[in-house]
UniProtKB/TrEMBL annotation:
Domain of life where this protein originates: Archaea
Cofactor note: Binds 1 5-hydroxybenzimidazolylcobamide group.
EC number: 7.2.1.4
Subunit structure, as described in the record: The complex is composed of 8 subunits; MtrA, MtrB, MtrC, MtrD, MtrE, MtrF, MtrG and MtrH.
Membrane-spanning intervals of the chain: 216-240
Binding-site residues for 5-hydroxybenzimidazolylcob(I)amide, renumbered to this chain: H85
A cellular-component GO term for this protein: plasma membrane
Protein name per the record: Tetrahydromethanopterin S-methyltransferase subunit A
Record GO terms (molecular function): cobalt ion binding; tetrahydromethanopterin S-methyltransferase activity
Organism: Methanofervidicoccus abyssi
HAMAP family linked to this entry: MtrA
Membrane topology: Single-pass membrane protein
């Protein structure tokens, strides 16, 4: 039987929308933007399962809860990808590349993928502890998720040799915030997209106004033409006696 270790007292140490199962399980499940998959994941044997919407504070909370339980050795990413934040891809980039000196997740494509309250030591601990990240991003099929959980459990290597590590996010969040450098390329693309959509809306409004104006003008001209057509015979009759 794989060796197990005690999680940090009161684990999970950070509050969230997750559901907790057996703390000795080797599997953690992140359901990204989907809700309603958590209980099925727990019933399949996961230690903890829940959504994660943001590529900064949300990821920090997951890291804090994972490294405070040495028994969690696999992470399953499933559920719908979070648009804009692209949290699933950011998790994968974090696991593969870590963070830079500025706290930015290397290779992440989210809007603001910066960890302000979790440093390199905690990220490297997360990378050492998790032996595999299973990519089921955009999968909401409970059968496939359950199968992945059971496969991980069958490969359980036992707890990491390192003790549970606790991060007090609340304490760190009370200090001065770190100024993060935004993803300018993503922001630029977003602005371009908005300008394009506004241009289309302006064009449609202009065309609509033109059609409406044309319709009114047509009614006026038609009325004048009708008056002339009716009036001409009358005038001619009067003139001819």
């Amino acid at each position: 039987m794989p060796e197990k270790r005690e999680p940090a007292p009161g684990w999970p140490i950070v509050s969230g929308e997750y559901v907790v199962g057996n703390p000795e399980s080797c599997v953690g499940v992140v359901t990204l933007g989907s809700h309603g998959l958590e209980q099925a994941a727990i019933e399949a044997g996961a230690a903890i399962a829940g959504p994660c919407h943001t590529e900064n504070l949300g990821i920090e909370k997951v890291i804090a809860n994972y490294i405070s339980n040495p028994n969690i050795r696999f992470m399953i990413l499933c559920g719908s990808e979070v648009q804009g934040h692209i949290t699933g891809q950011c998790f994968k980039a974090l696991y593969e590349n870590g963070i830079g000196d500025d706290g930015g997740i290397i290779g992440a494509k989210g809007a603001i993928p910066f960890l302000e309250n979790v440093g390199k030591d905690a990220v490297e601990r997360f990378q050492r502890q998790i032996v595999e990240v299973i990519d089921l991003i955009d999968v909401e099929d409970i059968g496939k998720i359950t199968q992945a959980i059971k496969e991980c459990i069958s490969k359980d290597p036992g707890a990491t040799e390192e003790d549970a590590e606790e991060i007090d996010l609340d304490k760190k969040e009370s200090g001065l915030p770190t100024v993060a450098k935004p993803d300018l390329e993503f922001t630029r693309k977003l602005i371009d997209s908005l300008e394009y959509k506004i241009g289309l809306m302006t064009r449609d409004l202009g065309l609509g106004s033109g059609v409406q104006a044309g319709s009114i003008l047509g009614v006026i001209l038609g009325s004048l033409l009708a008056i002339l057509l009716v009036g001409i015979p009358v005038v001619l009759k009067v003139l001819l006696g």
